[in-house]
Amino acid sequence: MERLWGLLQRAQRLSPGPSQTIYKRVEGTQQGPLEEEEEEREEETELPAHFFPMELRGPEPLGSRPARQNPRLWAAAGRRAAPYLVLTALLIFTGAFLLGYVVFRGSCQACGDDVMVVSEDVNHELGPDSHQGTLYWSDLQAMFLRHLGEGRLEDTIRQTSLRERVAGSAGMAALVRDLRAVLLRQKLDHVWMDTHYVGLQFPDPAHPNALHWVDAAGKHGEQLPLEDPDVYCPYSATGNATGELVYAHYGRPEDLQDLRARGVEPKGRLLLVRLGVINFAQKVASAQDFGAQGVLIYPDPADFSQGPHKLSLSSHRAVYGHVHLGTGDPYTPGFPSFNQTQFPPVQSSGLPIIPAQPISADTASLLLRKLEGPVAPQEWQGHLPVSPYRLGPGPGLHLGVNNHRASTPISNIFGCIEGRSEPDHYVVIGAQRDAWGPGAAKSAVGTAILLELVRTFSSMVSNGFRPRRSLLFISWDGGDFGSVGSMEWLEGYLSVLHLKAVVYVSLDNAVLGDDKFHAKTSPLLISLIENILKQVDSPNRSGQTLFEQVVFNNHSWEAEVIRPLPMDSSAYSFTAFAGVPAVEFSFMEDGPVYPFLHTKDDTYENLHRVLRGRLPAVAQAVAQLAGQLLIRLSHDHLLPLDFGRYGDVVLRHIGSLNEFSGDLKARGLTLQWVYSARGDYIRAAEKLRKEIYSSEESDERLTRMYNVRIMRVMRRGESRGRTLGLPTGGSRRNRRGGRTGLGARPSQERPTASESRGWSSTSCPSTCRRPTHRSATSSWVAETTRWVLCWTTCGCCARVAPGPLGRRPRWRGAWASRRAASGASWPCSPGRCRGQPTR
């Protein structure tokens, strides 16, 4: 303290000029508040007018304050220097103007006439390192087609299908190393990998799954053959199930209701269902809801035979398929599985609680011959050597499923071409890499197209092309277990991707035939897809474009081509979970679907024979579609996303709800608020479009702002739990319970079928229950209407049923307040609505 006091006194002596600050040493404790002392000090000290307190001038070192200068001398010097300063400023301005004119006179930016619709008049500029000048759409298209090779695709498909690609296997690890080396050789801006440790289910070789007849006393009889002991249903419940056998067609809810109406009760029995129409997970979930003990799934030749000159599935082949009603790792719902991180002991509510097993057509024939009871309806009859098919019940069966869970590392591989103007906005394209069996059509084709696109765009960059936005190429792992790789990556980086990903393009199941073309997509991309189809040649009709091919038999191209995203696709996860518009292309056969998908017969040879030698041409067409789509999305000044399309989509849904106007009026409600919301959206979209048309395209800052607003249309419109144009499974992130994948339950629990809906046994009445994605379109509309009615009026239901992104809609609170003020009664009272989502 003595040392500090000495320094203060020395600083006071050395300070130039008169100082009004007097340092006094005070002994003892000071009394009174500090604020009063400061006020008294300010009153005693009168500061000169030119002095400013230290906190308004910034810190100065002690002794560095300069001596006071004469203001008259400074004024005279300023008057003498003024002419020289003005002359210097004029010279600098003139030189900068001439330099700018010389540099930029030959590179004037051209503006397209239409900023929202794809046209060949829209120009594309190269980066500053280019020496080719301005590139128009035709120039970029020609450059892309020149670098895209056809022969490499077929060779890559053949080589990839010959390699072992089961997730977590040694063959997959070798393939990961090879693919990463391929990307590194392409000299991309960034190449990296993400590894996740996920819970996957595999068959137990020491205790294979088994199927036995059971006599009346419950003793096991003859064992039925399972020709493919390796074929199983991942994520099936393990254990034993015993019951009489019943035939239930495709296992849809309406099939089980029809079965019950015909006097055959599915509860407490094993169900035999056909493959097709809905996926494995939906079949098992429906059976579980109706109280069945287990499910056997078989391929019926009626769904897969392709005529005398086409291939069909062998009768001793069973078909593989997972039964998790959701996506991602079901044992870490909502969390990314990095570095074997420990999470709470919960699992997805989409995991079934009954066992399931795929069987071959031969085994199904043995079972159908034993069935008694009423004859199945004509539309339920198949092509097995059994006539007629009966509903049952039949003799008792015992199903034993002994699959085991293993923590398995899976690796996603990434390659990136960095954008020049908006590098933080990503156009993502991905393909599944893993496969159960050869997987030629399932994942080898997509992997080959992905690698060819990487090579093509890398060559274009070497020749002067640089996209405006970044291109992100991804090879996914764990796709056969429910898009595990893509979903875990989304869960890990959702906060970034939710705002930065522009569009996702999926190459899964791209070539399953060559007769028809389907685009499973979000509404924002429909207009862009239409334009691209008009510029790609048909692979099997010479002289026609793909657009001319699809409208040949149906003038409504949209009805012929556009389909909703399926739940078992990686594209679905991007849209329903992250709110990113997505598209998945598929060439298909005209008639029954490709018969070898998810079997050991999905080989390159069979795929080549099904397409009658046109596999390279069809794969080339998919590569052209995807490549031109990437160019438009990554290089256009303004994103070519048709945000006005949502008005038409909403109107179609409103038309479906009009048939329930009577129920609405009985409750004192109307659809007026829906029409009003649609009108508000249309006006907002038109206002944004006019702002874009009247803006200056060369203004980079303004262009980026409009692009961000266009991207937010998807974030705020589709990431809403039940996405328009998608199956009604909803989003794992935005919906809880009801087998969404996030309404998790403790892993040791085994809830009942009613509880697995996501509601307890004391849940709301049926009018308040949230609709499930397993319903048919018409019944889903009815369920949705009833649920909306109750959710908008019942306070307790609104409490347990959060709105979009976990928030209740604004109109709900205001409307409920007005209804409460008017004294109107609620359709379900709090006393009747005590259900809570299963957590």
From TrEMBL:
CDD domains registered for this protein in UniProt: M28_TfR, PA_TfR
Name of the coding gene: TFR2
Domain Peptidase M28: 412-610
Family that this chain belongs to: Belongs to the peptidase M28 family. M28B subfamily.
PANTHER family for the chain: N-ACETYLATED-ALPHA-LINKED ACIDIC DIPEPTIDASE (PTHR10404), TRANSFERRIN RECEPTOR PROTEIN 2 (PTHR10404:SF33)
Any GO MF annotation of the entry: transferrin receptor activity
Biased composition regions of type Polar residues, renumbered to the chain: 749-766
TM ranges: 81-104
GO annotation (BP), single: endocytic iron import into cell
Name of the protein this chain belongs to: Transferrin receptor protein 2 isoform X1
Region (Disordered): 25-49, 719-772
One GO CC term on file: external side of plasma membrane
UniProt domain PA: residue ranges: 242-305
Membrane topology: Single-pass type II membrane protein
Listed Acidic residues bias regions: 34-46
InterPro entries noted in UniProt: PA_dom_sf, PA_domain, Peptidase_M28, Peptidase_M28B, TFR-like_dimer_dom_sf, TfR1/2_PA
Compartment annotation: Cell membrane
This protein's UniProt keywords: Cell membrane, Disulfide bond, Glycoprotein, Membrane, Receptor, Signal-anchor, Transmembrane, Transmembrane helix
